[in-house]
Amino acid sequence: MSNNNKAKAKAKTKLDVAETWFADKYLIMEYSFEVHDKLRKLLKSDVSEKEMVKTYNEETEKLFSGEPEPLSRRNTAYYIWGHLKNLVSRGEKKRMFGLLENLDYEDTGFSDIKSEFHKLILKYDVPNLLKSSYFSKTLSNS
Questions:
Q1: Are 49 and 81 in contact (CB under 8 A)?
Q2: Do 81 and 74 touch, CB atoms closer than 8 A?
Q3: pTM above the 0.90 mark?
Q4: What is the H or E stretch that residue 112 is in?
C-alpha cells in the first residue's frame, strides 16, 4: 500500500467528499489523470450522496494502493508549474526548467521538484496549493 493512503480517512458525506477532493485533487492527478477526471465529473453530477461517497472512496482506495503513473506524475508536475511560472524570479524559473527538463528524460527527481514547488508555494503564498496533500509526503520527509 502506498504511503499516501496511510492517513486517509474515508469520506462519509458529500461534504467530506468535496473537502477531501479539494485537498487531494493534485495528488489524485499525480496517480492518474483518468481517475482525476472521473472523480471531478462525479462531484459535478447529481448522483445520490450514498453513491458519490461509495464511488469516491472505492476509486481513491484503489488508486492510492498502487503507484503513480509516470506520465501522470510528469504532467502533474507541469500542471503545478503552471500555477507558479508567472510568479517566480528568473533564477527560480531557470532552476525549475532544469528540474522539469530532467523529467522528460528520466522518471526520477519528483521529490526534488515537489520540494522546490513547496518552497515556491510558501514564498509566493499560493492558497489552493498550500492546502494540497500533493506535498504531504514531501513535507513528512523534510
A1: no
A2: no
A3: no
A4: helix 110-124
Range of 85's domain?
A: 70-134
Residue 20 located in a structural domain: yes
CA dihedral 48, 54, 60, 61 (to 10 degrees): 180
Q: What is the pLDDT of residues 4-31, one digit of tens each?
A: 444 467 899 999 999 999 999 999 999 9
In a domain, 142, yes or no: no
Burial class (CB in 10 A: 0-12, 13-18, 19+), 128: exposed
C-alpha cell belonging to residue 130: 498550500
Q: Choose one of 64, 80, 110: the last residue of a domain.
A: 64
Tell whether 98 is covered by a domain. yes
